[in-house]
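# step 3/5: fold
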Amino acid sequence: MTIEIRGPIELPARREQIELKTADDLTLVGELALPEASDPVATLVTLHPLPTAGGFMDSHILRKAAARLPALADLAVLRFNTRGTTSPRGTSDGAFDGGAAEQFDVAAAVDFVKDRGLPRPWLLGWSFGTELALKYGRDHEVEGIILLSPPLHRATPEEVAAWRSSDKQVVILVPELDDYLRPPEAAERFSAIPHAVLIPVDGGKHLWVGESQTRRVLTEVVAAVNPAALPLPTQWPAD
């Protein structure tokens, strides 16, 4: 007997409620999900959408990444609420700062991964989270960044172009029907990064609603980080 992997299903993993300490003395709340019976082969440090528009560590793509990818792709998934953000896990200290002081939040998450000895960290940003990855990812020891629905509202052209000289990988998923940045404009605005891989997603929308879009996003994430795990199963043994 098997069950279909879809919607809110949560596959087996070792899950730990964690706290991150920032350089400006805030405590951020989060969760670390690890493969149930093996060491992870890589680590996703997730950066959620805009908290003033409802984004938080449980925004559905990030929650589903944590629910599925430790089991399906041997990945560690770190989720956390940036400063001033609330979820069922709790509320992180501080207040939303428009992407400025959030640089300390990104640093705290990457430091946590390093302190835990977790392998091959990547930043996985969605919407507002892509701005944080673009603005601050070059400063950290990560293999690369994966950008989901980048609006490019806060990351300046100069900050984007600075990735030209970085050896970190840059993978960009742009929905065909995005509310803010669609593939033709994205190709132009990211052309300053010659090694960037831009993936237009036919029929995709900014919020990646629906199981088909969720699977596409998670597949592209795993293709970048641990392609040996593809194709991702769509069924799981029932208890």
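# step 4/5: annotate
The first strand starts at residue 2 and ends at 4.
# step 5/5: archive (pending)
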